[in-house]
């Protein structure tokens, strides 16, 4: 097992280096000059421009800049934002919990609904439940979520007034960030109503973000179940007169869960992409919106380190999925 | 651990935390502040969160005007030659305190000298207190060349010496970048080794004390009971950061905030009709324009430019792009600014006459580019839509228009490149209410070079000479006459098609009273109150 | 419509396989509905200038933000109302169909061709070529697709062409991986060895012998990518990085309409429905294709 993990980790090293090169070089060839953006309509004199570029280190050769970047990276320094002048890592950590909270809620919703629906649809294959749920799943899978989010806001916040429009918690509550997760912090603050306020702010964005993963998980669960139920050992169990409930519970479900878990793990990348749109629509102070803003402001250090952190994160989660998969299924491990 | 349950009045949610006396005012701000030290930044959103609530300056803009009045300086004297300004400082002004800092002395001349010098000299220990920090406003207002020295005469007297006379100087130092910060606080932070907190945990002399900031979400302030001016009427001030205009409006309607900036033009009529809301409006201190490249044929011919100007239907743009919430512009400066020349008559919209004029000048089958900027700005809600309308109008006089756009930073740079192909849509929002801040920056010969902002590359000696005279003239009446004359030349030469001065709207809850709109576009809350 | 049988040049067998394919495809009611909608969409796009009641960029300045016809304030000449500068929404939606189909076709073609070539090279040559190529694909896949596409568009400059290129680059590794996997399986088959012994060159082996036998999964992936491309380009348009106004691309229309979500619901609603319906139709079709082409599912 240790060798398996080690080989997986070693495999990641070149990928990670590739990611640093991409993050660095992409940002370096972005057109548009951060110095000019800072100056706005006013413009900046050539001398002052040179002075500022030098101060920011953009006058050195690109290769030198890359090694500078890599060197500082290994010391845990991701550079300072050009806009706020503050360390990128600090800004990332300040916003990251908001995205994680949203992402976790979305994946929980998607799993809790998606798996049972998928299982039911597989068991009752061809029934109206199967047809309706799978059609709905396909609609969800085809949904432009930015539009879906706007519709939900118009309906639930605008017309019905049930949910707040944006933000993470009502402004009447104020307590320090201990964990950065609003649900936990609001519980810990002990203030009455704080938790339900945080929850009501979280619900619409989570639902929007959960839409596509939910559809994928439901469809994947159904097809995994169908495949397993066609396998010989399930047929044998059934032929031996084992009750249907046990056949499904013990044999089918357990084996079908392996690909489903992989699917759930692989939704992390999908969630990050979805977070960009969801956070933009709901003014959710997280990583996705931060990246969009930084791209449009040409905040080089933020875009490059943000790309790196997000890709690194996706990589680590994929590794974890791989490892879990290896644990469950020894055949892969010994390959 | 501090628990400050902040109360939002009239909230729809069940209120369980009650603190009857505390009045909390919630402002749905548009952008996150970049930091809380006003000097390194340039955006209005940052100043609304830092310079205005937390700090003061030697001179201040009188509320609701662009006139300068005493701030931390009680009075001042200017020498005959206009080079020496001697400021008498206000006594007994208290600094804020926080967990890390308790002031031992009042505001004095040391703070003033410190605040200016850290921006002026690159080797000042506080110049680079955060790596890579720059003082863009200080530089762009030309302070390094303008200011010769800032000296302390005694604890409550400061003398600033200039290199050349500059009529707008007193207005310059009322701007946010010139906010006065505490030298003692800086020293405390330096001793603690946390210099960067100057930008994170600000200490000022202003009407509100900083409490906390959750990135991209909420800023909290509390009233400064010891404020030297009139103390605020509200107890707590909260900025709820909400970048999207539609969302801001929904929050306002839901009672989640009391006041918001920059409503979408499309929503104005709906806001007017809502009895729970009220709407303040004022002509903004801005101008949107289309700048021809006056160095390239046939746009080097003033008559061609005039003819094109006559082909574009201004009212249609005001109606469709600004939804009627703007005033068609005839001059390069807005009507709220002193010296605005109202006697000038705008070129009439007349496609037939335009066609004829183009023919007379021998211009046939003209095709040109119009640059439409990719972002929304206070002076131009939708450049793309404007360009499309111009395209259609110009096609009626036989001019083919191609619309081009670039990413914003690139747009700004490329539009200033010599030999640029096409006319550029852009605009300007005033910094300090002085006409020089529009005319010199945007239209003088000096700024028609790389690094300037004269995107018409228009260099008219007569016009520039008038501006130079006005800059060294102290008498407002004389300056007014000079600027009025300059506007006549501008209209005659038509380096721009002047589009519009957009109206600024501030929607707020009907319960709010005492809000004063600033012609400079600032949002300040020391005078607001909320009815129960 | 699919030539899974180029290798067997016998026309009869080909006809039979097509018939079998159609049999399984038509078993799936959803797929048929999807196909019908898709064909409709193609027709609408092809004959847009005939069907559309107005020029999609014509601004009726006396008809700004007119609601749909069934609303009291609606006008019969603008069935689905007009936008902020008085353009007919129905006409814009009709012309928008051209954009969506065009985007889908271009993106899938670029990604498919690029992915196939890269995958063939990796799978056929193996060794370090394979290692290097697959690592690069891993790196691309490590970034969330939309984020990567956004950065690419920021580099290339906002616009429809660049958005399509960016999306194609982001999708291409999926095709490369699929091709490589299929090639590696096929390489072990006897017919490949036979062809090699018969003296077929590398090029012939790759494109004539192996490729036709790997097409089924690629076709399924292509339909999936087609719908994702429509969605992602709309998302880019929505974020201001895709097709630029005044082109009536659906996502761009939504972005322009965002300021009206409270005051003019029709400007927001219809482009979204258009996106949803076309993406759904393609996905339904894709499901049918997969069922018809995938022998494993056919069995169960």
Describe the protein in words.
In chain A, 77% of the residues lie in helices and 0% in strands. Chain A is an all-alpha fold and 335 residues long. The longest helix of chain A has 39 residues, at 244-282. The mean pLDDT of chain A is 84. Chain B is globular. The model of chain B is unreliable at 1-20 (pLDDT under 50). The longest helix of chain B has 18 residues, at 476-493. Chain B has 532 residues and is of the alpha+beta class. The two termini of chain B are 30 Å apart. Chain C has 300 residues and is mainly alpha-helical. Chain C has helices at 11-27, 29-46, 48-51, 89-125, 127-142, 145-156, 160-187, 190-197, 202-210, 215-238, 250-257, 265-293, 295-299. Classes of the chains: A mainly alpha (335), B alpha+beta (532), C mainly alpha (300). Chains in contact: A-B, A-C, B-C. Chains A and B meet through α2, α3, α5, α7 and α12 of A and α4, α9, α15 and β16 of B. Chain B: It comes from Pseudogemmobacter lacusdianii.
Write the layout of secondary structure elements.
The complex is a heterotrimer of chains A (335), B (532) and C (300).
Chain A: H1 2-29, H2 34-39, H3 46-56, H4 62-74, H5 88-123, H6 128-141, H7 145-159, H8 182-189, H9 194-229, H10 232-239, H11 244-282, H12 287-297, H13 300-328, H14 330-333
Chain B: E1 24-27, H1 44-49, H2 51-54, E2 59-61, E3 68-70, E4 73-78, E5 84-89, H3 109-120, H4 136-140, H5 143-146, E6 147-154, E7 157-162, H6 169-172, H7 183-192, H8 197-200, E8 208-214, E9 218-223, E10 236-240, H9 245-253, H10 268-273, E11 277-283, E12 286-291, H11 302-311, H12 314-320, E13 326-328, H13 351-360, E14 367-371, H14 383-395, E15 400-404, H15 408-414, E16 423-429, H16 436-443, H17 461-471, H18 476-493, E17 496-509, E18 512-513, E19 529-530
Parallel strand pairs in B: 1-10, 14-15, 14-16
Antiparallel strand pairs in B: 2-3, 4-5, 5-7, 6-7, 8-9, 9-10, 11-17, 12-16, 12-17, 13-17, 18-19
Chain C: H1 11-27, H2 29-46, H3 48-51, H4 89-125, H5 127-142, H6 145-156, H7 160-187, H8 190-197, H9 202-210, H10 215-238, H11 250-257, H12 265-293, H13 295-299
Domain Solute-binding protein family (chain B): 67-446
Organism (chain B): Pseudogemmobacter lacusdianii
Signal peptide (chain B): 1-22
